[in-house]
Every structure is written in structure tokens, then in C-alpha cells.
Write a structure and sequence with these properties.
The structure holds two protein chains of two kinds.
Chain A lengths: L1 H14 L6 E8 L2 E8 L5 H13 L2 H7 L1 E2 L5 H9 L2 E6 L4 E6 L28 H11 L5 E8 L5 E8 L5 H13 L8 H7 L12 E3 L2 H9 L3 E5 L5 E4 L11 H4 L2 H30 L7 H11 L6 H21 L2 H21 L5 H13 L6 H39 L1 E2 L2 E2 L37
Antiparallel strand pairs in A: 1-2, 2-4, 3-5, 4-5, 6-7, 7-9, 8-10, 9-10, 11-12
Chain B lengths: L12 H12 L7 H4 L10 H22 L5 H9 L1 H33 L7 H16 L1 H16 L2 H4 L1 H6 L14 H11 L9 H4 L9 H26 L2 H6 L3 H7 L9 H8 L1 H23 L4 H15 L5 H38 L1
Helix pairs in contact in B: 1-7, 1-12, 1-16, 3-12, 3-18, 4-5, 4-18, 5-16, 5-17, 5-18, 6-16, 6-17, 7-16, 14-15, 16-17
The chains are: A alpha+beta, B mainly alpha.
Chain lengths: 464, 363
């Protein structure tokens, strides 16, 4: 008898060799001797006290109410439970292994978002805890049809992800396709959900994000009700929404909180802003390099005057200043916040004015580049803002080679590429390639709220 | 008669409308008023006549295709004319397509060179154009259809550019109506001008992909009449704005219509317009290249993207043919006239179809 029990403990001890935070604690209780085994780094002392030690010494029956029994021999399960922060209670006589979930994840409290802030509307954002995030969504959609399937990914790390959807609305084909893609992933470690996102996208080579990503529970739950599928990963703040369209990258949830007039205005600004930000500097290049005749005489004079001291051709000049802007932006996002302000002033004002006075750059170009840099931050989804940075270089180079004609070629590429893209098998360019005429009510112009109750075409929802 | 292979039906009504529409509007429209200039001011209503002719000639095309709903014209040729004659005819079509595409690209590129890129040869622009073209065509007919749709809405705004010409023009130029005397002039205008609206006949090649084949005629007609309307606007405004001498001698009238425009920040709207026109060229040429690729596929009985690359390479060499400009012009113009054959071809096929049916009944 004794030997067999000792053997189980020895076995666990052997398996947890070199894991120094494992604790084996023998206690005498009313039900005989109990060995408690747990990883001290995963469990708070307070939790352990209230859930294990106090009941063990006082009300031993409580233990059996909250714990579950597992097989003594199944070492895989035992180790997995230990690693998941659960406590093992080994009763020596009769030999019995009980397990209690004592995992106390180090979480932070819900704070407001810094990356997708809005003026109106709820301010809470997702945190890095899966449970908190699911509860934030369930609080908004109090409906038994909201399902959350827990899957694990990461061949080495076994990270939990949750797939949420409305069972009565979601398109089952989309669901199966997504499940299949997640099953096929062979990747050892995910430190953020955006890695998972890149692995399950339709076209991983494209510069465009093909799934919507947000840290705002209000925006995500809105898409859930529309029939999309939401993925959340433990240890990761953002949620993925799929499928999505190119146009939805310009939709901020605040549009629905604003009045429709304001919302439409802002959407137009963002949408055309994206095309402007990739177009402004290439236009400057083509107007000054190849097609000077498209400018009226007075404007041309103005431009040439501001460029009179600049020794470079417009292409080099533009690349130069764009590079400076990139450096400023990248340095600004990396450097400690306290020095950030100073460097911002040095970079923005000193380099800008000094470069113009030194005759390295033209005044007008600085205005254009600054405008296009600001415009690139208009999309509410930061991934698209990064995309616009990249796409702009394609446009700059093609304008540098063929002027306006190159610009139009680049546009043809952009349109053809966008039209080729799919998001979870649905065309990315809805509603421009129409799937549903009612989508137009919620496109560049947001119609008054009472017209918006229809599901979007891209969801291919079960009910309209 | 079906070979049993199941083809996916992918083109819906909008796709058919805009495929038809965009294939018709290409480089031809740019010089339509000049091509019709033998009629002088009376040309304004010619596009409407073209529209009627196109609507009538579209019917036999749809008819012969609806008899073989899963086959494109290349296959129908082989079925009706026998394997070898069919393949020979298909080869002719493919060659015609190649020269047609090369012709369109050639004339557009020379236009670009003379207006927008004066200091460059056309080699680079043509190469980039073809690369992008291949990129579009590899996306399949559905991508081309979607592209055409998007392009239509983007380029439609160019109609606005003509309003200055409309304001400055003289509406009395329309009168008197039908002011021409010789049938020869009329025939000349018909022969030259009709080239501009070619393109709708390609429905014979993408017909098997259409979802609602019963309504294909109607949808195609909508596409045709959108194009005809645009052509009509062009010729009508040209008639109002230009003198008869200008109509005869200004080659690219639309660009000159744009020149009438005045913005305080944009001087030469025509350059902007001509570079924007590349979208329309893409949507026209992509459909033709797709058809040519399908032709090669059926010729070799194997579907492969390599055919597309080879076709693009051939087109590149045809465009860059080391010959005089005059020879090229003749070559491309004659290739265009062969295109007329394609319009009357279904009538021959219908006759063969009926003869064979009769034979079968007798047997």
C-alpha cells in the first residue's frame, strides 16, 4: 500500500525535476495524510490559503465539492494540470488524486484604449486575459446563441484561443473554413494574435490586412451581431474579426455614435484621405519631372522658386524627406516618452526649417509630405496606416519612373490587387463589388441609424 | 454535345453588363469623331446607328452560344467545323486577337509618348503595362469583370471634363440633320467608326461562365447601350465644339475637348485624361488577352498560365516590331478589319448548325 503511494509521488517528483517552483507539502487532516502539489509561481498565496488550506483543515467535505478526481496513472494529464496552475491534492489513504483550479493569472484591470480612442462611446478596452475579454463581450451580447469555442494553438506552448460567433447568424461555411485553417497551423509560439492573423489570412503576401483587428469590445461585439467570427487569444489584447472588407478598415465604431451627418463627413475624409496620402507626393514628382505642363504658369513658377536651391531631382528629394519622416515616426514610437517631446520638436521644426534654409528641400514639399504623413494616420485601424506607408513608396517609385502614367499604372495595380484579395473567401472590395445593395447604406455615407439594421453582405449571414 | 466538364458559373448580371461595356470603350473612342469625319456635322447620331447594328448582331452570337451553353466559341468551332478546320479558324482568331491587342497598346503608347512621356521610348511603359496586364488576366474573367466595373465608376467622372466644351460649343451645329450626300461617305464612316465600338462580340467566349444565360442578351444590351451613350456624348460634344475642318484633322478629339477645361491649379487636363485612360485600355485589352489565352488553351487542349506569358511576350514583340510606323499602322488597321469577320462569324456557324441538325434529323 504505502509503496504504491510513494511511487506516485516519486513519479511526479521525477517529472518535475529541475522545475524549482514546484511545492510538495505534506499535511495531516481529518481524511488522513494529504500531499499538496502545485507550482508556486502560478498561484497566489491568498488563493491557496482560502481554497485549499483552510478547507483542508476545517471542512474537508468542501474540498470534494469543488475538486475533480483524476487518474493516478495518467501522467500527461497530471502534468498538464500542474502547468495550468491547478493544485493537486493527493490523499494517501485511500489513494486518491483530487485537483482544484487555483490558477490566479496575473492580470491587469480594464483600462481605456490608447490605440483606438474615441471621444464618444464606451472607453473600456480588452486586456491580455482571455476570460476578461470573453466576459467583456458576453456582457454586451446577453444571448445564449453567442458561442465561444476554446481551441489551442502553438505546437510548443499550447496557447488558448477562443472563437466566438452568434450561432444563429454566422455563416457556417465561413466557420468551417476558419476552423480548418486554424487546425492546419503548425507554428511553435504565438506572442500576439497578429501572428496568428498572418497565418490564417487568404493572401499572406499582400501588404493589406485582410482581417479586422481591434481592442474595442464595443466595435467587436457589433461585428459579432453582424455574423462575423471573432478570435481572441490568451495573453494578447486585440481581437480578430473575420471576414472583413477593405472599406471596413475606414470604419470607426464612433461613426455609429455620432450623428449620421458628422459620421459621413468623417468617413469620406478617411476614405479619400487614404488615396490622397499615397498620391500627393507622387503627383509632385510627376508634375515636376515629366508633366510640368499640367501645372498653370503661376503655380509652376511658385514651385520652381521654392525648389530653386534644391540640387536633387524631385524623386530623390521626395525619397529623402519621406525617409526623414519615417525616421521621426519610428524614433518617436521607440524612444522613452520623456525624451519624445524634445526630439519631436528637434525633428519637426529644426530639421524641417533648417533643411529648407540649407536648400536641401523645398518648402512646398515639406507641406505636402507633412500633410500626407498626417493623412496616413486617419484610418482607425493602424495596420492600414502602415500599409499606406508601404504602398506610398510603390507609388513614389512608379511616379519617378513614368510620371503620371506610372502613377496610373500603380493605381491599376492597386485596384487589381484589391479586387483579387479575399477575406475568408469573401471579396475584399465589398461593397464596391456589390454583394448586397443595402451595404451602400453603411458605406462612405452612413445613413441614419434606422436604415442600418440589415446584416452586411460580407457576413453572408443566415438571417438578414 | 457537352464534353461533360463542369464549368463554374461565375459571372452575374453586373459582371456581364460591365464586361461588355468596358471592352467596347477603349482606345477607339479617343479618335471616334475623326473616324466619322467624312459625315461632317451629321456624324453626331452615328453612334446611335452603331448601337442598333450592335444590338442586331449580338443576337446571333447569343443564339449560337445558347445552343452550346457550356462551350465557348473556340470549342463550338471545333464541334461544328470539325477538329482541324475548327482549330485552324481558332488559330486565325488568336492571331487576330494578338494583333488587335498589339494595335491598341501600340496606338495608346504612342499617344502617351507624344503627350505625357516625351523623352522616353515606349519600351519601358509597354513592358510595365504588359506585366500588369498579365497580373490582371491571371485573376480570371471574374477579376477582369470586377476590374471593369470599378474602372467604369472611376473613369465615368471624366464625362464631367467635357462640360466646358459643351458650354463653349454651338448647338446649332447639329442642324441640318443628315446633311451628307454620298453613300460612300456614309459607308466610309461606318467602316472606320464601327471599329471603335467593337468588343461586345467577346461575349461568345465568356458566355459559358455566365450564371443567368437566359438573360445574357438583355444584360449585354445594357452594357452596349451604356457604351453607345458615351460615344454619343463624345461625338455630340465634338460636333458642337469643333469646326468641320477640326473634326477631320484633330486626331484625338476627346483630349482636345478636355483642353477646353479651366482649373486654376491644373492646366492640361488632357494629359491627366490620357494617363487616366490607361484604366480603360486595361479593361479592354485584358478581356481580349483572356480570350486569346482560352484560345491557346483549347488549341493545345491544356490549360496553363504559360500560354499567357507566351502571348504577352508575342504581343510585346509585335508592338516593338522593327518596322516603319506606317507599316505598323496598316498591319493593325487590317487586323481591325478582320475583327469584322468575328461579328458575322456566328451567322455562318448558325447555318452550319442548322445544316447538321437537318442531317441528323434525316439520318
Amino acid at each position: 500500500m504505502e509503496e504504491k503511494e510513494q511511487q506516485v509521488i516519486d513519479n511526479i517528483k521525477q517529472q518535475t525535476q529541475d522545475i524549482d517552483d514546484v511545492v510538495f507539502k505534506k499535511m495531516a487532516t481529518d481524511a488522513g495524510v494529504v500531499t499538496i502539489i502545485y507550482f508556486s509561481s502560478l498561484i497566489e498565496k491568498m488563493t491557496l490559503q482560502t481554497m485549499v488550506f483552510i478547507p483542508l483543515t476545517n471542512h474537508i467535505n468542501q474540498i470534494f465539492q469543488v475538486s475533480e478526481t483524476i487518474d493516478l496513472q495518467d501522467m500527461d494529464v497530471i502534468l498538464q494540470k500542474l502547468n495550468a496552475g491547478q493544485s493537486l491534492l493527493f490523499f494517501h489513504k485511500p489513494a486518491l488524486l483530487q485537483v482544484i483550479d487555483t490558477y490566479s493569472a496575473p492580470t491587469r484591470s480594464i483600462t481605456n484604449t490608447e490605440t483606438e480612442s474615441t471621444v464618444i462611446g464606451p472607453q473600456d478596452a480588452f486586456t491580455e486575459s482571455l476570460e476578461t475579454n470573453i466576459s467583456l463581450l458576453k456582457r454586451r451580447i446577453q444571448n445564449p446563441m453567442l458561442k465561444n469555442e476554446i481551441l489551442t494553438v502553438g505546437t510548443e506552448t499550447n496557447i488558448k484561443i477562443a472563437m466566438l460567433y452568434m450561432d444563429n447568424i454566422v455563416n457556417k461555411e465561413n466557420l468551417d473554413l476558419l476552423r480548418k485553417r486554424i487546425d492546419e497551423i503548425q507554428y511553435p509560439f504565438f506572442s500576439d494574435i497578429s501572428e496568428l492573423k498572418q497565418l490564417i489570412e487568404d493572401n499572406p503576401l499582400s501588404p493589406f490586412p485582410q482581417y479586422y483587428m481591434s481592442v474595442r469590445p464595443d466595435s467587436v461585439s457589433q461585428y459579432l451581431v453582424d455574423g462575423r467570427i471573432v478570435l481572441i487569444m490568451d495573453n494578447s489584447q486585440a481581437a480578430i474579426v473575420c471576414p472583413t472588407s477593405f472599406f471596413e478598415m475606414f470604419v470607426s465604431v464612433e461613426d455609429y455614435y455620432n450623428r449620421w451627418t458628422t459620421a459621413s463627413l468623417l468617413r469620406m475624409l478617411r476614405f479619400f484621405g487614404f488615396f490622397l496620402t499615397i498620391m500627393i507626393t507622387p503627383m509632385y514628382i510627376s508634375a515636376l519631372t515629366f508633366q510640368t505642363e499640367i501645372l498653370p504658369y503661376e503655380l509652376l513658377l511658385n514651385l520652381q522658386e521654392s525648389r530653386s536651391k534644391v540640387p536633387f531631382p524631385p524623386l530623390i528629394e521626395v525619397l529623402f524627406i519621406e525617409l526623414i519622416i519615417e525616421i521621426l515616426r519610428e524614433a518617436g514610437s521607440r524612444m522613452p516618452a520623456k525624451v519624445g517631446q524634445t526630439i519631436g520638436i528637434v525633428g519637426g521644426i529644426v530639421i524641417g526649417t533648417a533643411a529648407v534654409e540649407a536648400g536641401l528641400l523645398s518648402n512646398i514639399l515639406i507641406v505636402l509630405v507633412a500633410t500626407s504623413a498626417l493623412l496616413s494616420f486617419l484610418p482607425p485601424i493602424f495596420l492600414l496606416s502602415n500599409t499606406s506607408r508601404f504602398v506610398r513608396y510603390i507609388f513614389i517609385l512608379s511616379a519617378g519612373v513614368f510620371g503620371l502614367y506610372g502613377l496610373m499604372l500603380a493605381f491599376s495595380w492597386l485596384f487589381a490587387h484589391l479586387l483579387r484579395l479575399n477575406s475568408l473567401g469573401t471579396p475584399y472590395m465589398t461593397p464596391i463589388v456589390p454583394r448586397n445593395a443595402r451595404d451602400l447604406f453603411d458605406s462612405i455615407i452612413r445613413f441614419p441609424t434606422k436604415y442600418l439594421n440589415a446584416k452586411k453582405g460580407i457576413s453572408r449571414a443566415q438571417k438578414k | 454535345m457537352s464534353t461533360g466538364q463542369s464549368k463554374r458559373k461565375i459571372l452575374n448580371a453586373y459582371h456581364v453588363i460591365f464586361l461588355t461595356q468596358s471592352t467596347m470603350i477603349g482606345v477607339g473612342v479617343l479618335s471616334l469623331p475623326q473616324q466619322l469625319s467624312s459625315l461632317g456635322y451629321s456624324q453626331a447620331f452615328m453612334p446611335l446607328l452603331f448601337g442598333v447594328i450592335a444590338s442586331i448582331t449580338l443576337y446571333p452570337m447569343i443564339w449560337i452560344n445558347s445552343k452550346y451553353p457550356n462551350e465557348n466559341l473556340f470549342r463550338i468551332n471545333e464541334i461544328l467545323l470539325g477538329k482541324w478546320i475548327g482549330k485552324f479558324v481558332n488559330l486565325l482568331f488568336i492571331i487576330q486577337f494578338i494583333f488587335f491587342i498589339a494595335g491598341v497598346i501600340n496606338s495608346y503608347m504612342h499617344l502617351i509618348q507624344s503627350t505625357a512621356l516625351q523623352e522616353k521610348t515606349i519600351t519601358g511603359p509597354v513592358l510595365c503595362f504588359l506585366l500588369l496586364l498579365v497580373y490582371i488576366v491571371t485573376g480570371g474573367i471574374k477579376l477582369i469583370a470586377r476590374f471593369s466595373m470599378l474602372i467604369f465608376f472611376i473613369t465615368f467622372g471624366m464625362v464631367y471634363f467635357t462640360h466646358w466644351a459643351f458650354e463653349k460649343g454651338d448647338i446649332t451645329h447639329f442642324l441640318p440633320l443628315f446633311n451628307f450626300y454620298s453613300a460612300n461617305d456614309f459607308y466610309d464612316a461606318l467602316k472606320k467608326g464601327y471599329l471603335s465600338i467593337l468588343g461586345y462580340e467577346l461575349i461568345m467566349f465568356y458566355f459559358p461562365y455566365i450564371v443567368d444565360q437566359k438573360k445574357a442578351y438583355r444584360h449585354s444590351l445594357i452594357g452596349i447601350w451604356i457604351s453607345i451613350l458615351l460615344c454619343f456624348i463624345t461625338t455630340a460634344i465634338s460636333v458642337m465644339y469643333f469646326s468641320e475642318w477640326q473634326l477631320r484633322n484633330v486626331e484625338f478629339s476627346i483630349l482636345n475637348l478636355f483642353k477646353a477645361g479651366e482649373f486654376s491649379f491644373l492646366e492640361r487636363i488632357d494629359i491627366f485624361g490620357i494617363t487616366l485612360w490607361v484604366f480603360l485600355i486595361f479593361s479592354t485589352v485584358a478581356t481580349y488577352l483572356w480570350c486569346a489565352k482560352k484560345g491557346v488553351d483549347s488549341l493545345i487542349s491544356k490549360s496553363s498560365n504559360v500560354h499567357l506569358y507566351i502571348l504577352a511576350a508575342i504581343i510585346f514583340f509585335v508592338v516593338k516590331l522593327p518596322s516603319s510606323r506606317a507599316f505598323q499602322e496598316t498591319l493593325f488597321t487590317s487586323a481591325n478589319y478582320v475583327a469584322y469577320m468575328l461579328i458575322f462569324w456566328p451567322i455562318i456557324l448558325i447555318l452550319v448548325h442548322l445544316l447538321r441538325k437537318k442531317k441528323q434529323v434525316q439520318l
